[in-house]
From TrEMBL:
This is Phytanoyl-CoA dioxygenase domain-containing protein 1. 2-oxoglutarate(2OG)-dependent dioxygenase that catalyzes the conversion of 2-oxoglutarate to succinate and CO(2) in an iron-dependent manner. However, does not couple 2OG turnover to the hydroxylation of acyl-coenzyme A derivatives, implying that it is not directly involved in phytanoyl coenzyme-A metabolism. Does not show detectable activity towards fatty acid CoA thioesters. PANTHER family: PHYTANOYL-COA DIOXYGENASE DOMAIN CONTAINING 1, PHYTANOYL-COA DIOXYGENASE DOMAIN-CONTAINING PROTEIN 1. It holds the Pfam family PhyH. Belongs to the PhyH family. PHYHD1 subfamily. It comes from Ursus americanus. GO terms for molecular function: metal ion binding. The lineage of its organism: Eukaryota, Metazoa, Chordata, Craniata, Vertebrata.
Length: 168
């Protein structure tokens, strides 16, 4: 098998570092989502997120929350490229259902811990209202054998920024 590396939809831009910061007091929440909404593959099930805590992530400073088993319920929506004439834009196909808040299970971790995120599992993080920052480093792997990286994904590999094969 072969895996490829791609950057993260929630990172600070196409070329920005895939580091996620929840700043103290006003770190923004990350609303419930599935990563395959942003990084779609055909078939699904080929995407794995790696989320490495650079600082302790707690209930107070914005740890991740997951709905157990939600990776088996399909994909709610997709973010796709759209064109108005030659102008490139993005829009959602489908919509994120309102999720029962009681289904989410918190995943507090210590600095250095790694969380593996299935591409279809529903997850979120709450606003950081604490005194402590919460840095994480995240990126995604795709199993590339017999997988199509959807051509209408917002993120496309280029000659300058290709997806890096990890092994052959
Ligand atoms: O770090 C966060 O607060 C959210 C991260 C996330 O949703 C992701 O890595 O898919």
């Amino acid at each position: 098998t072969q895996s490829g590396l791609c950057s993260h939809p929630l990172s600070s831009g196409l070329t920005g570092p895939p580091s996620l910061l929840q700043q103290p007091h006003f770190g923004g929440e990350v609303v419930p989502h599935q990563d395959s909404t942003f990084l779609h593959t055909e078939p699904l099930g080929r995407l794995l997120g790696l989320w490495i805590a650079l600082e302790d992530a707690t209930l107070e400073n914005g740890c991740l929350w997951f709905i157990p088993g939600s990776h088996t319920s399909g994909l709610s929506r997709r973010l796709v490229r759209t064109y108005a004439g030659s102008k490139l834009d993005i829009s959602f196909l489908g919509s994120e259902p309102v999720r029962d808040a009681s289904l989410f299970v918190p995943t507090p971790v210590r600095r250095g811990d790694l969380i593996l995120i299935h591409g279809e599992v529903v997850h979120k993080s709450d606003q950081n209202l604490s005194e402590r920052s919460r840095h994480a480093y995240t990126f995604h792997l795709m199993e590339s054998v017999d997988t199509v990286w959807s051509p209408d994904n917002w993120l496309q590999p280029t000659a300058e920024l290709p997806f890096v094969p990890l092994y052959k």
